[in-house]
Design a protein that fits this description.
Layout (H helix, E strand, L loop, with lengths): L8 E5 L5 E3 L9 E13 L2 E7 L6 E5 L1 H7 L6 E6 L4 E5 L1
Antiparallel strand pairs: 1-7, 2-6, 3-4, 3-6, 4-5
């Protein structure tokens, strides 16, 4: 059931749904935000990135160590994040 316009809600996005880029991405995702990597934590065979932004709430992204190395990610790295609309679940507050 759709949420009424203006109703308070929270968008829940799984870390695996957040794509990380070094430059602003082009293509189908309409949800694109700049951010800064603030923390990198190993979780099994993946890395979890805490990404903060003045334009969006904090995001957690999950990437492979190979992707992190290829992108040159480190604490303080400027990045762009993208999320396809179909990957967000809206929860009423």
């Amino acid at each position: 059931e759709p949420l009424p316009a203006g109703a308070p809600a929270l968008a829940v996005i799984g870390p695996e749904a957040v794509s990380v880029h070094r430059e602003r991405p082009t293509g189908s995702p309409r949800n694109v935000w700049p951010g800064t990597v603030r923390e990198i934590t190993a979780v099994g065979s993946r890395l979890r990135l805490l990404i903060t932004s003045a334009e969006a709430p904090d995001l957690v992204a999950e990437v492979t160590p190979e992707s992190a190395a290829e992108l040159g990610l480190a604490d303080g790295s400027a990045v762009w994040t993208s999320v396809k609309a179909t990957e967000a679940t809206v929860v009423p507050l």
